[in-house]
Amino acid sequence: MRTLLVTGAAGFIGSNFVRMLLNRKEQVKLVAFDKLTYAGNLANLQDLLAKHPDQLVFVKGDICDPAAVTKAFDDHKVTEVVHFAAESHVDRSILGSGPFVQANVVGTQVMLDVSKAKNVQKFLYVSTDEVYGTLPEDKPEIKFTEETPLQPNSPYSASKAGGDCLVRSYFHTFHMPVLTTRCSNNYGPYHFPEKLIPLFVTNLMEGKKVPLYGDGLNIRDWLYVEDHCDAIYTVLNKGRFGEAYNVGGNNEITNRVITETLIREMGKNWDEVVTYVKDRPGHDRRYAIDATKIQTELGWWPKYKFETAIKTTIQWYIDNQSWWRAIKSGEYLKYYETQYAGR
Q1: Which of 89, 110, 113, 276 is the most core-located residue (most Cβ within 10 A)?
Q2: Are 62 and 33 in contact (CB under 8 A)?
Q3: Distance CA 25, CA 167 (A)
Q4: What range(s) does the NAD(P)-binding domain occupy (predicted)?
């Protein structure tokens, strides 16, 4: 049976990927490898670990630690790697880029080196459309393709682009069986409430205001997280080694329209809950994905419509208040010590 080492598996997209594979009853063993930094929450996997003890194992470890990564490979006979683990919040990267370079560049280098030494069968690197930079607002016909030059504009996207380049180099230099995906903005369950949609939803539930950057007209292509996870698994199974695949949701929406949608769905009034804040330094104006390559080569298309998936997402936060309230209070950071210490 295939054994996938999933780095960052306790994070937003990583945990959704693990959940999707187990819910589909895919014939794979999963090693959930996570350092449990502030964005890694073992509660994201709690029910899965209890329900699938023979198929899913959790390993607390740092992708920057070659010994820890090597031990995970050896202990669990890893055959493939899906590398999600990353520092990912642009605002935090502006405050300090060091952790981003360490995790996203050095961590990726360590993962590649250990994977190469262990003759891994496949190595998939999960990247972002932010490595491409920004697009003009007045030319909607222009979108990011896999041939668009990498022109990152934030320390976060620069560090992810560094990882992209390392992955590419290991294919051309060492003929490693690597794959890269570059996705647009994700939304859905288990999204850490510092990002726009979960922050705004939870703030509205708490009776707080929502902070809208600048004029709110920055455009993003929104992708439901399960569609993204399905695309990753499609690329892992069918993708050509050495290639990158763009993954988008065909949903170009301004931050203002996202905010209007959330306020409307939650029965609030714009004038009472929105506060404009100074725009982020270097804030990219528009992202848009051309996903023709993954569609034509691999037959992947997004299944979820934004209009319905955003309602599903909002309802998830309504139904799982203990999850996000523990994060906002900081109580979730005690979870590992109280529930899993010594196991």
Answers
A1: 110
A2: no
A3: 30
A4: 5-312
Closest by CA to 11, choosing from 82, 67, 106, is 82
Q: Which two tokens stand for residue 160?
A: 């992810």
3-class secondary structure for 148-203?
Answer: CCCCCCCHHHHHHHHHHHHHHHHHHHHCCCEEEEEECEEECCCCCCCCHHHHHHHH
Of 326, 166, 145, 322, the closest CA to residue 247 belongs to 145
Distance CA 99, CA 127 (A): 17
Q: What is the pLDDT of residue 145?
A: 98
Our answer to whether residue 156 is catalytic in this structure is yes
Alpha-carbon distance 46 to 54, whole Å? 14
Phi and psi for 114 in degrees, rounded to 5?
-65, -40
Which structure tokens are listed for 262? 């959330």
Is 130 annotated as catalytic?
Answer: yes
Alpha-carbon distance of 26 to 321, in angstroms, equals 30
Tell me if residue 129 is catalytic.
Answer: yes
Q: Which of 56-60, 209-213, 314-318, 335-339 has the lowest mean pLDDT?
A: 335-339
| 273 close to 199: Cβ distance less than 8 angstroms | no
Query: What is the pLDDT confidence band of residue 335, given thresholds at 50, 70 and 90?
Result: low
Q: How far apart are CA 11 and CA 94, in angstroms?
A: 21
Q: What is the pTM for the complete model shown?
A: 0.94
What single letter denotes the amino acid at residue 271? D
- Determine which one of 132, 156, 170, 287 is catalytic: 156
The neighbouring-strand residues paired with 264 are none
Q: In which order are the strands placed within the sheet that holds 185-187? A: 185-187, 219-224, 252-254
- pLDDT tens digits for range 121-145: 999 999 999 999 999 988 989 999 9
Question: Which position among 130, 230, 252, 290 bears the catalytic label?
Answer: 130
Q: Which domains does the chain have, with CATH numbers?
A: 2-188+223-250+283-306+333-339 (3.40.50.720)
CA 235 to chain centre: 16
